[in-house]
Amino acid sequence: MPDVRKTLTDAGYIAIGLGVMGFQQAQVRRRELQEQFENAGGCVAERARDARTRIEHLAGDLGQRVEPLVEQVQGRIGDLPERAVKTAEPVVAKVRDLVGSAA
């Protein structure tokens, strides 16, 4: 007759062994996933730094291109009231002549 006690003891050892092996496998997978996440985080951080550098370079380049245009427009706008008055003076004089002669 088989020894029940020995069979149960062996089954217990097998169950404990399988549990330990499963726990170790879970730890290995956890470490692998952690490493993948760290690598992915580093990759994302590197891409973010690259994007920021490109944007800063583009902003500087854009500023250099736009600044002369802004100065040019400001120069023309500054002269605009004076040029408008000079252009309107003959028209105003003509209207005054017409109004004065009609009265």
Polypeptide structure, described:
The structure is a single chain. By secondary structure, the protein is an all-alpha fold. It has one helix spanning 4-102.
In short:
By secondary structure, this protein is mainly α.
Topology:
Elements: H1 4-102
Tell me the total number of β-strands. Answer: 0
Quickly count the helices: 1
Tell me, rounded to a whole number, the average pLDDT.
Answer: 87
Could you tell me the strand content as a percent range?
under 5%
Describe the main β-sheet briefly: none
Spans where pLDDT lies below 50 across 5 or more residues = none
Fraction of residues in helix: over 70%
The ordered H/E elements are H
The gross shape turns out to be: rod-shaped
Alpha-carbon distance between the two ends = 142 Å
Class by SSE composition: mainly alpha
Q: What is the CA-based Rg, rounded? A: 43 Å
Main attributes?
103 residues; mainly alpha; 1 helix; rod-shaped
